[in-house]
Amino acid sequence: MRQSRFTEAQIIGMIKEQEAGMPTAEVCRRHGLSPASFYKFKAKYGGMNVSDTHRLKCNRTIDLAVTHKFPVLEFLRSGHLRQYRRGGKGRAI
Length: 93
Prior knowledge:
Elements (H helix, E strand, L loop, with lengths): L7 H12 L4 H8 L3 H11 L4 H28 L2 H10 L4
Helix pairs in contact: 1-3
């Protein structure tokens, strides 16, 4: 997935500028983004603080860990780990 040019803190700052009364076109021109991108960011980050985005990022990390850990747990439960250790490599997982 492509990374954004802007950090989450910068995006929230742009949204706060617009909510403070600056016209959307002016905010977009100053920061160099299209109005469509601005409204997409506003739909995702509107009403959040920087600390809320940190919490959102932590939740995404936990979701990914749970999603990717399941195959590892199945590998451990299946007995392949014992077989791997007896293979003479001497490496532990």
